Amino acid sequence: MAVGEKTKAEVEKYGYNVWAVPTEFYAEEVAKLLQGYCGRVLIPRSSVGREEAIESLKKLGFEVVPLNVYETKLLDYPPEEFEAKVKLSDFLVFASPSAVKGFFANLQKLRDKSLLKDKKIICIGKTTKGEWERTFGTPCETPEKPTMEDILRLLKKLA
Prior knowledge:
Blueprint: H1 5-13, H2 27-34, E1 40-46, H3 52-59, E2 63-70, H4 79-88, E3 91-94, H5 97-107, E4 120-123, H6 126-136, H7 148-158
Parallel strand pairs: 1-2, 3-4
Helix pairs in contact: 2-3, 5-6
Keywords: Lyase, Porphyrin biosynthesis
Family: Belongs to the uroporphyrinogen-III synthase family.
GO biological process, one term: protoporphyrinogen IX biosynthetic process
């Protein structure tokens, strides 16, 4: 199983068969596809990966083996560089909750936090949107599907 068509294509490049891709790219959808099955599930993920998929699969009776295969490291920008980059943009696009957290951490170092006042904020999907709204208390736009292609369509629509 792969979560997303691009991941499926990458896995298939190595000669493996992907038997399922959820229609929506969220943990609940993965669990739905595995209802009625049992066994062990290996989940390669980030060291700060979310727990929803693991918990959903455990509830279905699976033994779940999380395997942290990469780390997400928040970068600490010099305030002047961070501010200059944000000022240049019309849109801010977030593709993960970690991106929201890293952005917020850097924003906190600025005296003038009104930089976002006229920016259009786009979050790739409901998980990232939830992180944005919890952190900033303001809404963001989300594409129809959580893909970069749909983000591009949304950018064109909002421009």
